[in-house]
């Protein structure tokens, strides 16, 4: 359906947001309409949850027009350490 | 049949609009857990900022979703409904599938690309991911507390014996 795959989205997020860790999973069985992402970057430092998500949404504004469902978990490196520890 | 439903819903919606003007009337209907307005469609007007400014304040919590709380028509909307149910939150829900101008209107209003969208005390809080994360971190309980809603989860927590609270 959409022309995007997880690799493309990971590369773009890595480049635009200088991510320390990024993982995008295609949940659409290959049609490219549904993704979930874990995004870790210092660019999120000092931002509220809403601001983090807005940053990702604006980075992928063009792609999200075609991607039907996009779910994100966005953490600062510090938050990510805590999440991993759990 | 559909038309009959619509006209019924339209009526209830208009009643609701009256409520907003009257303000205090909502307190007299505590038996309704969540109010749902499907007939936004009936207005036919473009949904502008001034209208949304009012809509997001008709209750402490207002949700724009696909489908209605009894029958969500999207997994993300359903997740929000389930979170609200767990916390025992009474909220107003609007079905954007009934009204394309509301769907676009609310997206423009928040500059947020997806549905569902949740408002607490008139402030845009986020979509499904954010609600889920707030639910998991406990922030949702705090946010609800700020507007005078005591989460059912908090009540359950406080009712527990001390040794179980660590969980």
Automatic annotation (TrEMBL), chain A:
SUPFAM superfamilies: BolA-like. One of its GO terms (molecular function) is 2 iron, 2 sulfur cluster binding. Pfam families: BolA (PF01722). GO terms for biological process: intracellular iron ion homeostasis; protein maturation. GO terms for cellular component: cytosol; nucleus. Coiled coil: none annotated. Belongs to the BolA/IbaG family. This is Uncharacterized bolA-like protein C8C9.11. It comes from Drosophila rhopaloa. The lineage of its organism: Eukaryota, Metazoa, Ecdysozoa, Arthropoda, Hexapoda. The gene is LOC108036976.
TrEMBL record, chain B:
It comes from the Eukaryota. GO terms for cellular component: mitochondrial matrix. InterPro entries: Glutaredoxin (IPR002109), GRX_PICOT-like (IPR033658), Monothiol_GRX-rel (IPR004480), Thioredoxin-like_sf (IPR036249). PROSITE patterns: GLUTAREDOXIN_2. One of its GO terms (molecular function) is 2 iron, 2 sulfur cluster binding. Residues 61-125 form the Glutaredoxin domain. Keywords: 2Fe-2S, Iron, Iron-sulfur, Metal-binding, Redox-active center. CDD domains: GRX_PICOT_like. Pfam families: Glutaredoxin (PF00462). SUPFAM superfamilies: Thioredoxin-like. NCBIfam families: Grx4 family monothiol glutaredoxin. This is Glutaredoxin-related protein 5, mitochondrial. It comes from Drosophila rhopaloa.
